[in-house]
Amino acid sequence: MTLRTNIKTRLFLIMIGFALFISIGLSAIDQQRLEEQAVKHNQSQVQQTEEMVTSSLHSFEKAHYLFEEETASKMQENTYRLLDKYKDNPHFDEWDFEQLEQQLGMDIYILDTENVITHSSFPDDIGLDFEACCEKLASVLNERREAGHFFHDGMDIEQETGEVKKYSYMATPDKQYMIELGYSVEESQIFEEFNFFRVMENLADQYDSIYDIHVLNIGGYSLGEPVDEARLSPERREAFEKTYATKQPSEVEEEWKGEPAIYRYTPYESKVDNGTTKNKVLEIVYNNNELQSVLEENRNNFYMTLVIVLTVATALALLISHWIAKPMHMAFHDSLTGLKNRAAFNDFLRSQLRQKSQETALIMVDLDNFKAVNDTLGHDRGDVLLKQIAFHLSSTIRKGDTPFRLGGDEFMIIMPHTNREEAESAAARVISDIQHSIETDHSLSMLNVTASAGIAIAPEHGKDPDVLFKKADSALYASKEKGKNQYHVYEEDGYEEDETG
Fold it and tell me: Is residue 270 classed as helix, strand or coil in its secondary structure?
């Protein structure tokens, strides 16, 4: 491979590398930006869902609060009626709960000291143990039992059916029982007007990424769904409890109807409810299908962009390297002979001398009586001779040695990894080869054109490039003074003359 080809190849690789670096960097930044936008869009749907469900709950509770006081007063009045009945007849087995429910318009539950429902107008709930199913609520019930006052909460669920109800509690005077009343919120006109279940259904239908939405009570049970049909898995239960306790969102990955899904839990705090139902948790079940689809499309676009950029960059790199390779080659090469020039010599020699563990020889070669060639035969003939000298130098020296044209008829050979004996042998061959070539040309032979050489060796004669150059030049001058057509090696106290080749 020629040096020009080498420069062209290096330029091509550098430009390709630079183009790839810039294009990949910009494409990667753009890809990251698109991915962030896709993620934000996906998160935005979930966030909008949270905000709309929260807003719907707040709107319902505010509207419900307007008639809640009336409902609470009615529940308190009914509770006192039942307490009076208990004073007259403390044997609940003798009570007709079905008839009482019709009279009061509310469900009736009797809890014993273990917080177990022993009697009720809703037979399916008899035997329900709050200590087992609802530890948080059971703890609150124990406190209320001891307080002996009337308490009412906001909306909660009927565990058997999932129906949204309002509950009240008050202990009997002997603290042996707790009278609980339940009023169906879903039967009110307000619930029909501000039905948050309908809002949640519409949101799930509106967004492809939303699978389902639930409002969970203090026990982690979903409003509107029977407890047995909506129990949380251990992982979801842990996430729910974490959110309920810390008031911070949490997520867990599971399946929803056989599909990969993310369950997100977000705290909700009522602005009007001060009972045990004040705090709830929103459960939003969503997927990343749309996000993954967008990300996959972005990745495909990214790869396609890279292919296009690489193709364009390769074409441009080939074109530009072709344009630039020649002037760059000429900057370090002699235009006439094709040898490396003085600028390349200086860089090469300094680089070579940095390798301190080896000997390097400089052989300066100069044509004798070259001016006569230009004056007598013309500059064109002189140029032909210089090209011949360059050819002989390149073909005579060892592999790894480098010839230079310093200017005019002055040449230099750098021989790395050498010694004095090899340098002298090379100089003798060069002089002999040039001499034989000139002897075949009668016109040059008549002008007595020959070659002289001077040798300097590093580190013997110095380590500085300028010093070595001057000593090689000094040795060349000695060769010319001694009669030309010979070489000399630089010596501090003179010049040791050798026979020419």
Answer: coil
Pick from 213, 258, 262, 260: nearest CA to 239:
262
In this prediction the pTM is 0.51
Reported as half-sphere exposure (CB side, CA atoms, 13 A), residue 214 has a value of: 26
Question: Which residues neighbour 228 within 8 Å (Cβ) at sequence distance 6 or greater?
Answer: none
Q: Which of 12-26, 424-438, 472-486 has the lowest mean pLDDT?
A: 12-26
Whether residue 122 contacts residue 157, with contact meaning beta carbons closer than 8 Å, is answered with no
Beta strand 450-458 pairing with 487-491: parallel
Q: Do 489 and 478 touch, CB atoms closer than 8 A?
A: no
Give the SS3 label for residue 92: helix
Q: How far apart are CA 478 and CA 483, in angstroms?
A: 9
DSSP string, 1-34: --HHHHHHHHHHHHHHHHHHHHHHHHHHHHHHHH
Instruction: Return the amino acid letter for 89.
Output: N
Write the CA distances from 260 to 209, 253, 310, 478, integer angstroms: 12, 7, 38, 91
pLDDT in tens, 220-266: 888 888 887 778 899 999 999 999 999 999 999 999 888 888 899 99
Angle at alpha carbon of residue 49, lines to 195 and 246, rounded to 5°? 100
Extended strands (E) in 43-174: 107-111, 117-120, 151-157, 164-171
| Cα atoms in the 13 Å half-sphere on the side-chain side of 458 | 27
Please give the C-alpha separations between residue 351 and each of 32, 184, 354, 457, 464, in angstroms, as whole numbers: 45, 94, 5, 15, 11
Nearest by Cα to 285 from 318, 236, 243, 350: 236
Answer whether residue 497 shows pLDDT above 60.
no
**Residues 285, 264: Cα–Cα separation, whole Å:** 6
User: How far is the C-alpha of 23 from the C-alpha of 30, rounded, in Å?
Assistant: 10
* pLDDT per residue as tens digits for the range 263-288: 999 999 988 777 788 889 999 888 87
CA pair distance 377, 169, nearest whole angstrom: 128
In three-state form (DSSP H/G/I as H, E/B as E, the rest C), the secondary structure along 393-453 is HHHHCCECEEEEEEECCEEEEEECCCCHHHHHHHHHHHHHHHHHHHHCCHHHHHCCCEEEE
- In terms of residues, how long is the chain? 501
Query: Which run of H or of E encompasses 184?
Result: strand 178-184
